[in-house]
Amino acid sequence: MNSRARGVRPFGVVLVITALFVGTSCDSSHTFSFNTTIQQTSEYIQQEMENANAVGLSIALVSDNEIVWAEGFGWADKENRVPATADSVFMLGSGTKTLTTVALLKLYEQGRVGLDQPAVRYLPELDLASRYSGQLQEITVRRLLNHHSGLPGDLYAAGFLFDDSWETYGCDLYMDFLMKYLSTDYPSHPPGEKATYCNTGFVLAGEIALRQGREAGETFTDLMDREIFNPLGMNHTSLRVIRENLARGYGGGQVSDIKQTNCTFGATGGAFTTVKDIARFMMMINNGGRTAEGARFLKPETVAMLGEAERSELDIDSMFQPGLGLDSMDDPAMRYAGRAWMKSGGTGDYFSLIEMLPDKKLGVVVLTNSDTAQNLPWAVVRECLQNAVREKFGLEPKAPILPVYDSENNPARIEGLYVKAFGYDRIVDNGDGTLTRLIDAQQANPDTVVLTYRNGAYRAEHRNESLSFKNLRWNGRDYFVMIQSGSSGADRDEYQYGGHVRTIVGEKVTPGPISQAWRGRLGLYVFDNVPWNDIRWGAPFGILTEKDNLLLWNEENTVVPENDTTGWIAGLNNRGDSSLRIIKEDGKEKLLCGGYRAYPMAQVPVVAPGAVISGTVDLFKTDWFRVDTVLAGQHVDIEVTTESERYALTLFDENGLFLGREMGAISFITQQGAYFCAISPTPDTNGNYTLMVK
């Protein structure tokens, strides 16, 4: 990306470094060479990878019906010195949503799915607890694809797994769990209110595609192979792990365990792929639905539907303007080049970005394999596209016009708490016409800035962004919000928005007092419905705290109690579950949120060496035990004596640090303090176990 246009940190003179250049795919046979684009973008990649300490990256550039450049940089496997190439396989993450959308659009063309039909027409068991009038009829297939469904968004339970998916045991196990959970849950938002990122919507969209389009015995993975990947020649793409040429993921400087998505959860983020395969997909889109070989795959008018957005009065964000299966159908940094469609993805260790310019028939995909590269795809994709548009069409980047909203200027009206996607800000009336903003006020030591009203908005010294406090209205309801215009200099603003920011930061909430019932529930929790191979076993804990008369779940979800058993997760930007809900089970109060069920850590039963315990667990019911040790250096064995190979034992220290996970038996040498052990079964056992501690 051209640093003059995107407003991010310029890197000055490009240094010659020893980054790897391998897997190049460009030659003089192309109708347009893009030599300058390739040279400038390669230099940019080298410098930015060095700045970010990124491990590996692959890129592909398409123009018209050609892959004009495909190359790898850095390492696919750093420890074994395997370079990244254009054929390296990465996890795509949420870019899979665009592939899922195209699968549904094929069924739409065949008359087998109606986009404006309620999702419940195709998923008759779909139900939600009542919160909004007509809610199920308003959750349409289209809204599953454009993030306007209002469904609880991030329900990750049983979604990402270590080892294999549950196809061997039957994918109904996952979908039955999800549908049962949703039936006790509420919508997070009224359908159509505003675009709010929603993974659950795409899981349901994938299930609709499977039910309406499958052949006998097919899983969603099989359907995507048959309907999307094989016809497009995407021969190195799958929703199952591809181990050949796999670029290993890196987190915290260490190689990550290989993970994959579970059954239809793959629809929201499960693809493994290469830049060359995604290049073939982009060419089909840019060519109005024709494959690289010229075959008709989708109708042009169907492809154009990807760029159709639903906009309410609250959809004022300059970047997050979802089309169907897209994060944005109008990237502000590339708007000057016509339609600009983009989709990002991230799994914690892999990060990706796909961007297409259909009017210029250009597209770029970048895939990376380290947590340090989180921002790189945004920077590199736009750098490459801006270079390509300049070289081929002679167009220079042009900043979009984003009018600033006039702000309310009565400090007493503005003062209060503004809930964000994660956490909240506090605005304080200083009594002299100025305001103090406490950023992330839920933290112990929030950053503070003083805001002064001038030119119709509030601004802080030495900061570029302005803040407007304004009432917006939708469907007869008022929303008093804090709107940011311009970049704050934060990575999100500079990279994702390209510096061109207009976004609702938070919605004002007025909390009531916290009841004694809720105060009595504050503290640490253990999750007791984590399946045996769910990646949540890395940290199956939660914490409920309180500040400013707001409850905080895991220090980021802001909760306003409705009554003593339900608390709404607040804010227009909430992409998580709708609520915290209290149930009674096994003689305990338990908390439901995000697909998980939890109870207080203080209630975990204590066992001593020599104990023999019998119990019953199932796929979504885990038993926990605490082992207290007095002396350091003791050897402790915990062993399941019944069908031991079908029970996972997971061990943590008293601070919740993961110590190990084994099937059937686990041993450890003690330090002084407590240890927590969880037992969870595979699906192919009756769940009746006997466990010995010795």
Q: What is the element layout, followed by pairings?
A:
Blueprint (H helix, E strand, L loop, with lengths): L2 H4 L28 H18 L3 E8 L2 E12 L4 E2 L6 E2 L4 H14 L25 H4 L2 H5 L14 E3 L9 H12 L15 H15 L6 H10 L20 E2 L2 E2 L3 E3 L4 H4 L2 E2 L1 H12 L13 H5 L36 E6 L4 E7 L4 E7 L7 H18 L17 H4 L1 E4 L4 E6 L5 E5 L7 E8 L2 E3 L6 E9 L2 E9 L5 H6 L5 E8 L6 H4 L3 E5 L13 E7 L2 E4 L3 E5 L4 E4 L9 E7 L2 E6 L2 E5 L5 E2 L4 E5 L6 E7 L5 E6 L6 E7 L4 E6 L1 E5 L3 E9 L6 E6 L1
Helix pairs in contact: 2-12, 3-7
What would a concise description of this structure say?
By secondary structure, the protein is of the alpha+beta class.
Describe it for me?
This protein is α+β, with helices and mostly antiparallel strands. The chain has 4 domains: 90-393, DD-peptidase/beta-lactamase superfamily (Beta-lactamase); 411-509; 516-602, Lipocalin (Beta Barrel); 606-693, Jelly Rolls (Sandwich). The chain has an 8-stranded antiparallel beta barrel. The chain has an 8-stranded antiparallel beta barrel with strand order 21-22-23-24-25-26-27-28. It is globular, with a radius of gyration of 26 Å. Residues 1-28 have low confidence and may be disordered.
What is the beta-strand fraction? 25-35%
Number of helices: 15
CATH architecture of the largest domain: 3-Layer(aba) Sandwich
- Structural class designation: alpha+beta
Major β-sheet strand ordering: 13-14-15-16-17-18-19-20
Low-confidence stretches: 1-28
- Please, what is the CATH homologous superfamily of the largest domain? DD-peptidase/beta-lactamase superfamily
- Give the strand tally: 37
On the 0-100 scale, what is the average pLDDT?
94
Helix share bin? 10-25%
Termini gap: 61 Å
Radius of gyration: 26 Å
Shape descriptor reads: globular
CATH topology-level name of the largest domain: Beta-lactamase
Count of separate structural domains: 4
For the biggest sheet, the summary is: 8 strands, antiparallel, barrel
CATH class of the largest domain: Alpha Beta
